[in-house]
Amino acid sequence: MIPELEVQKAIRERLVGNQRVIDLVPATHILDTNQRPAPMPSIILGESQSVDEGTSIKRTHWRIYHTLHLWVREPSLERVKALAGAIRAELRLGRLALPEGLHCTDLQVAGMRFLRDPEGEHSHGVVTLEILLSEVTP
Fold first, then answer.
1. What backbone phi and psi angles, to 5 degrees, belong to 39?
2. How many other C-beta atoms can be found within 10 angstroms of the C-beta atom of residue 17?
3. pLDDT score of 113 more than 90
4. Domain boundaries in the chain?
């Protein structure tokens, strides 16, 4: 079991299960893809990084950083910011549901950035999530 992949799957499940998010982006547009430009609007499950938390000699505590890339065709940043707000509200509702053997100890939106397309056609948001994860033995 790869914790980073399980976290990504759990994030997607949370997002597609939230009506506020789905009202802004169809569930079929919440993807793990390299396609660019992405379908509009979309949430692209982006890069992740795992860092040993260093709190256990068993090396079973990880801090995972995961990015979400938000794409909207609009001349302003209004809709992409609304989408980021919906994601933040959904993820604040609690820990991620992970398979047996993994436990989400903490989940937070660590940062959000909003970028303008130089051509003025798209807006792009980057949401960085920070997940504290424990590997547990049954």
1. -60, 150
2. 11
3. yes
4. 3-135
Given pLDDT bands bounded at 50, 70 and 90, which one contains residue 36?
A: low
pLDDT reported for residue 38: 65
| CB distance 115 to 84 below 8 Å | no
Q: Among 135, 115, 132, which residue's Cα sits nearest to residue 124?
A: 115
The per-residue DSSP string of 29-61 comes to GEE----SSPPSSEEEEEEEEEEE--S-TT--E
Between CA 19 and CA 14 the distance in angstroms is: 10
Beta-strand relationship, 122-135 and 102-116: antiparallel
Please state which CATH number belongs to domain 3-135. Answer: 3.30.2000.30
Strand partners, 67: 128
The answer to whether 68 and 12 have CB atoms below 8 angstroms apart is no
Q: Strand pairing of 102-116 and 42-52?
A: unpaired
pTM (2 decimals)?
A: 0.91
By mean pLDDT, which of 29-38, 47-56, 101-110 is the weakest?
A: 29-38
Q: What does residue 85 show for φ and ψ, rounded to 5 degrees? A: -65, -40
